[in-house]
Design brief:
The protein is α+β, with helices and mostly antiparallel strands. 40% of the residues lie in helices and 11% in strands. It folds into 2 domains: 276 residues, no CATH class; 30 residues. The strands form 4 sheets. Strands 2-3-6-5 form a 4-stranded antiparallel beta sheet. The chain has a two-stranded antiparallel sheet with strand order 1-4. Helix 8 packs antiparallel against helix 9 and helix 9 runs antiparallel to helix 10. It is globular. It binds zinc ion. The site of zinc ion has 8 residues, from helix 11.
Length: 324
Amino acid sequence: MDARSELAMAEFFNPSGELFSPALTSDWPRPNRVELHNGILTIWSTQAHQKSLEPTRLARPGRGLLESFLSLAGPADQQIPLSALMKGTRQEHFSDEKICRFAAHFGGLQIFYRMQTGSQWPETVHTEYCAVWRYFAGVMRSLLLIGAEQYQGKPGSPEQWRVISTPPSLMGKMARKQDRCWFEPMPLGDEENWLALAYFAAKQHEQNQVMIARLLNTLLGLGRVRPWITWSGAQPEGPRPRFTYTSRSLLSHLALQLCLRISKVEAFVVCFHCGRTYLPPVRAPKAGQRNFCTDCREKGMPKYYSHRDYRRRKRRSAKAGTRE
Ligand SMILES: [Zn+2]
């Protein structure tokens, strides 16, 4: 990101100078293979379901993930028609390779995509467009810049609103129609809803906080950000269920981070013992690890739980011993 943009959104960086809020988020499976051809990414993946995946097959989001994603925003290629991509008449964009490497590490955005037929679930093959990646990287960057101006009582620059309101035209063709749910705040599916919002975001009287919140909510929908429970213990006395705030995908993580930074929520971590949110002193605990707030730490709760585990392990091995 250039220094001017960083300065403009400075208030969203945390005290360590990062665009990051510690939060309990899920890991997600890395793709098996990603190929780039003419601005189109083909992504081979194995979807995580009951089987737990090898740690080496998991994408581990670091503190700098949102910032690295923002750096993929490139000069607009909004007007490239889908047909030019399909026929291969378009020049490779300089950031295509960078996007391909990013996708190989962290998987696809899984929006405005096409599934390829022929593979057997949980194996999947799908295609995504680098133009869509550049657009959403630009959108997130613009939302931060506009958000910063909104805190100062300004509407945000027309240039930034234009980034949001000019999605690549191919997105119109790719948007999936979903069953309308009339109880949703917007009855359209998230992809169609995004395009509708992008259209209205061009109008000056719509360029306000309500629109920003709608865009952010739709982004949370596109990323399928939702509470997520995993419970791995096979034994009745195994660990408690683990609760995270994102589902298992790249966009889920990015959308949550973006919303936390724009809302200036410093941390989204809950203490294992007392269940209150707190700001971890160093970093977010790893998923699956117990984490404790300062109060509970001072009360010696970490020791209490590790002693309890030790006693249980001992009892179990004693029981196993008597059966022999
Ligand atoms: Zn606590």
